[in-house]
Amino acid sequence: MKYKLEKPVNAGIGTANYQCHITWRNGSFIADEPVSKGGQDKGADPYTLLLSSLASCTLITLKMYIERKEWNIPEIRVNVNMYQEIKEGTTVTVIDRDIYFPEVIPDEQKERLQEIAKACPISRILENNVQVRTFMKKDGATAKSILYSNDQITVVWKPELCQHSTRCWKELPAVFDPKVRKWVNADGASAERIMEQVHRCPSGALTAIIK
Ligand code: SF4
What we know:
alpha+beta; Alpha-Beta Plaits
């Protein structure tokens, strides 16, 4: 398992309805709801953000392909929208993506680009099996703790809090190995790397103290 992003997208909301402050690799922006839904329209709403992801991925994928082919297509535009309908008791979401080119380009190139667009990474995610796993960090002050130490670090594991995300042992198998009884090996990586991994535990089951 390897996450697509080195750092997760981080978002927070406070008292101002419904401004979400979203931090990404190289900056931040605001998401909001329109006034009709009680927000202040200070940023794109979640549906717009979802569709923007598809729109930008489409354009980037096409641009890369055009560059590789050395075709003369200076501009590509895309409109994306969606609707939902109930079919046989199930909600079906349909996303329509309209691609167009301000300049005239040959039909054969358009046909090829249509196929390329269908295979862009975000299209594939949206059309395939997507699972959203939700974890919640807990305090667990009274939960039983098991300690794993060396002279650099003590890793504390609270089994009752563990939500079995698999994140620790898939990302740092030299330290976390659920197949062995003493499943945390504090000697398996530097104290700093272990601490970094401990901070990625989504449940609060892992904490650590550097000595
Ligand atoms: S990262 Fe945390 S919640 Fe996930 S398996 Fe490891 S200890 Fe459990």
